[in-house]
Design the sequence.
């Protein structure tokens, strides 16, 4: 295929300009545009509601000054050195770049690409490694960004090599959208699978956390990239937000789960869209989103039924586990305080609520205690 080009101006998108420009440049002044020709070629331009178009092409709906925060999960609170976060006891997160294969319009880290940019990208790898070395409780490290595969493989090697020199780091995870947005980053780089094979060992694996949001992204090229990663010795999982206008149909979501399982990618997390500035048009109320997720599970077998529906809240990763006419039931899947892991939250049902703060909490406690004061009487 033709060489993939990266576009940062809407006027360079031939199928868009000049017919659909409207006032979109007012949006990109606030939230920049970035896409590549591979991703743009997945769009059915005759369909204004095309899901891939919705992922990468700006819309006027993004200008909503009354909703959201630039750091909705308070990641800055957990930054221990610039570019390194330590929120959960045994996990560290490294932000190694602010570059991406395309700017998802709903990105929860869009602050990294805007005037709100903070000092959150790792510049000094030694400071991060020293912190991890000094904290033996950290047994897995998520390499994120931006997208780590925007780095040259030689740069990634330095990160992987440094982490593999720390005995207590067992798992390295890489959060990447490459297989969906530009699989040729994987297909065309012969050094990448060799490097993965070197550092993903039988005792200490590398996990790639892929980011397919719609089945239209699972192209033959994407499947080829996935297979290269698998053959290199990596373990593959997938995570996606539940996005209005993209994957908010239970049967469509089920098809994505089934396709991913069939190519060797385990469904991992489905996220509630974070209340980040500009994201309101992508977010569904929590109750509706959970109902869509649960309905999707009816149409898949066990191998495709491994995802959890969660919100990445500032207080922890909260899984939605149940719903009735009066209440919604949540559980701390991950908490900064390990003693709080598994804590049950019972809240009054609010069909308009998006985030934890929108719900009145009735009680909290251990899931093991299923009667008495931990369950509501009304």
Sequence:
């Amino acid at each position: 295929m033709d060489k993939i080009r990266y576009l940062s101006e809407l006027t360079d998108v031939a199928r868009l300009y000049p017919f659909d420009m409207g006032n979109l440049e007012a949006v990109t002044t606030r939230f920049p545009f970035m896409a590549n020709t591979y991703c743009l070629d997945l769009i059915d331009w005759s369909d204004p509601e095309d899901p891939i178009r919705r992922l990468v092409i700006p819309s006027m709906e993004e200008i909503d000054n009354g909703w959201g925060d630039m750091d909705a999960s308070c990641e800055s609170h957990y930054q221990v050195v610039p570019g390194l976060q330590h929120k959960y006891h045994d996990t560290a997160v490294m932000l190694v770049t602010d570059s991406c294969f395309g700017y998802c319009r709903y990105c929860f880290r869009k602050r990294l690409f805007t005037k709100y940019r903070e000092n959150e990208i790792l510049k000094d790898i030694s400071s991060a490694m020293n912190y991890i070395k000094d904290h033996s409780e950290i047994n897995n490290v998520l390499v994120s960004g931006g997208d780590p595969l925007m780095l040259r493989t030689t740069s990634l090697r330095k990160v992987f090599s440094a982490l593999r020199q720390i005995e207590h780091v067992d798992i390295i995870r890489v959060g990447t959208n490459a297989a969906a947005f530009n699989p040729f980053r994987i297909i065309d780089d012969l050094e990448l699978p060799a490097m993965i094979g070197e550092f993903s060992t039988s005792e200490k694996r590398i996990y790639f956390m892929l980011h397919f949001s719609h089945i239209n992204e699972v192209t033959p090229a994407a499947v080829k990239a996935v297979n290269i990663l698998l053959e290199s010795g990596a373990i593959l999982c997938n995570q996606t937000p539940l996005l209005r206008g993209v994957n908010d149909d239970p049967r469509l979501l089920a098809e994505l789960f089934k396709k991913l399982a069939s190519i060797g990618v385990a469904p991992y997390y489905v996220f509630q869209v974070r209340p980040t500035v500009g994201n309101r048009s992508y977010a569904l109320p929590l109750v509706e989103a959970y109902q869509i997720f649960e309905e999707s599970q009816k149409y898949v077998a066990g191998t495709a039924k491994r995802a959890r529906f969660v919100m990445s809240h500032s207080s922890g990763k909260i899984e939605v586990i149940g719903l009735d006419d009066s209440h919604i039931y949540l559980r701390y899947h991950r908490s900064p305080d390990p003693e709080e892991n598994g804590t049950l939250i019972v809240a009054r049902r609010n069909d308009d609520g998006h985030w934890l703060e929108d719900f009145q909490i009735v009680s909290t406690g251990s899931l093991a205690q299923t009667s008495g004061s931990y369950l509501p009487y009304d």
